Every structure is written in C-alpha cells, then in structure tokens.
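Listing 4. Sequential folding, example run.
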Amino acid sequence: TVTIGGRVYPINTDFRTCVQFELLTLEDRLTPENILTMFYGSNWPQPYEEAIQKAVWFYQLGKVEQEKDEAKRDLTKSKRSYDFEIDADALYTSFLTAYNIDLMTDSIHWWAFRELMFGLPDETAFKQRVYYRTGDTSGMSNKQNKHFEAMRTRYAIPERGKIDRKLTLAARDAAMKRYVAQRFEETYGKAKK
C-alpha cells in the first residue's frame, strides 16, 4: 500500500506492471492516465500528482531520491544492460532455470523481481547478454576481443524513445521520473504546491 492524501491505497506490486511502465516510458507512450490505471486500477487516488509520484517511487524500489553522485557520473561511459522486450526469452528461461519461477504464471513483487533479475547466476542466458553488453575487453587477446565484439553486436539494444540512452540504472530511473513529471505537466498544467 501507499499513502496518498493522508489515506492508504493498494498499489499493484506485480513485476509485469513495472515492466509495462518501463516499456511505455522508453517508447514515449506514457501518460498520467495509464500510470494511474496500471498502478491503481479504476480507483485513482487523489491528488493525482501525488498518486503518480508514489507510483514512480514504487517503480524506483522505494527510493526517495537517486544518489547524487550516481546522477553526476559521466553517463557516456555507461551502457544500457537490458531491455525487457528484447530479453524476454532470456529472462524467462533464466528465471525458470535458476529459480524454478515461471514468469508467465507466477506473481512476483517488483522489488523481489529486480533483486532476482540482477542476482541471476552468470551462466544464465540473461546474465550472458548483460555481460556482452557491458563487459570490458581490455586485456583480451585479438581472437577473444573479436568474439566478444561479435557477441556485443548480436545482443546490442537499439535506441528507441527519449529515455533510451546509455544510462546507469539510477540515472535511467531519474530520467524516467523527470519524464513522468513532464508528461503530467503537459497534461494537467503546472502542479499547485
């Protein structure tokens, strides 16, 4: 549950909600209305702006603000490590193999899902993709480097939308938060304090 306007409301905690939230954000199709519907169903809590802020807070694993050092880091050196759409098959098989969790039928809290996703064993298909996207090739032989770069190309994530840049997770979450605030302002005008 979350507290909005002094009242407690249930929030949709299933990982599928946050996956959908992230995909819509990356595709620049997120609206205040679909945020409220995804997280609260048809019973939208008021004030709406606070309800949206709580939804973003939930997506960000309950963090109030991103680390300031993380946000100031040179983002051009970071690589995006996953994409829920592109990696759907690898995530499914990796969760099934490592945890015996069927992502098509099992319900998992978003926060647990994120911990499990990044805690997958290195030999799983998902973690292999992450490794090739973000790994360092310095110190590799020419043959190893050539293979690594071929795999990096194979698993590359194409750009899409406004948020899809080479970002760290914290910077990506912060960019999504700014994007949601901008969309809210475009739809409802400047928020009253």
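-- end of first protein; second protein begins --
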Amino acid sequence: MINADNSSVPTSSSPVAALRYIFNSPNWIMNVVWMSLAALSSGIFVGQIAALGYGTELIQRNAAFRRSESMDVDIDRLGDYISKGIWPFLVHFAIGFLFSILLALPLAAIFVFGALGLGVAAGEAGIAFAPLFFIPIALAISTVLSIASIPFILRSMICQDFLPAFDVGWALEFVSKMFWEILVSGIIFGILSMAILFAGLLLCGVGYFPACGIVLAGAMHMLAQWYEIFLSRGGTPITPSDSSIVEASIL
C-alpha cells in the first residue's frame, strides 16, 4: 500500500498538470509516440483498451498523482495494459449501451413533441429555432451522464472486474463529492484539449497525431487526479478484487 504525504495532496484537479504530465519523463518523446498510436488505433478498440490499462496502472501504483515523476509507457508490457484495460472498456461499453436504451426514446419524444409545440406556438420560425433550444438540453444531459459513468469506470479499473464496478452506493458517494470538481475541470480540460488539437492541425496536420497522444495521456491523468481528490475528501477507497493489486490510499 502506497501512502501519500498529506502536504502533497491536491485540493483541486489541474487540467494543465494532466496535459503536461507526459512531458515530465526524460522519455517523453517515446511516451508521446506510443500514446499517439493508442489514440489512432482507438477505432479498432485496441488502442483504447491499452490506454485504459495504462491509466489503470497510474491509479493503482500511487496516490500522489501530482508529483513530477512520470510513469513511462512500456511497450513490452502491452499485453498487461490490454488485460487491465479490458474491464474498464467493457464497463464503459455497457454503460453507454444502457444509457442509450434508457434515454433514446424519452429524448426523442421530448425533441419531437417540443419541436411540434414550438411550431404551434411560433409557426415555422419556432421549428427553425428549435435546435437552439434543444441542443443545450442534449449537451447538459450528455455531460451529467458522462460524470455519472466515471465512478463505475474507476471501480472497474481498480477492482479489475465487471460486476463489482456497478456499486451504485459508492458511485453516488463519488458523484456527491466530485460532481462540481469534475464538471469545472472537465470543461477546462476539454477547452485546452481542443486548443492543442487545433494547434496540431495548424502544423500542416502532422502535429495532430502527437496532439492526440498528449490529450489521451492527459485524460488518463485526470481520472487519477479525481480519484486522489475523492480520497482526500474522505471518500471510501475502492477495494481491489485481487489482493495483489496495489491500492492508492491517503491517510
């Protein structure tokens, strides 16, 4: 069990630190290369699974995620990353599938009847401007659901199992302590990530590929930060299903 000095425990997450994390290692060039390859191969799921496995080790290894040391990507351990990343990948897929089933019909009904209502009230102009009304609603719902999925993904990363990830009581505790933290830092991280990706496109398009790797590594680090802050706020630590997994805890 690895403990973090209380003086090193952050009180809030840092999207800037997350995006800079990959550069903290002397081997940052290769880290960017491997994370870029993972981002580019996410479409066939292998890259996404491997990245989640790398993020899992970030969380399992150390609770002091804001230190200057960086955990290098070890391509020789690709099999380990994939084996550890398969659980959060499956949980993420299951949650997305469940949310889509539960919300697809209600959202469609709201949009259709809402547009018809605006059409009756304001005629063709109401129908034309309906998207301006419903897009923010869709974004708000999507944001809330994304935050709601995070505790289940974190549990699957540390428990390394499927069913133990769906602890609703723990998820509610996590969201109650971390909702506004994740909302604010997540928005900032998203804006900074878009800026990095756009800057990469400006470099004749070539810079877009390493930008994807930087953003992907930053996303894994944000998960690690959120779990650390949750623990620092008195949150219940996740107990790994496998006793050999190192649990990050804060005294």
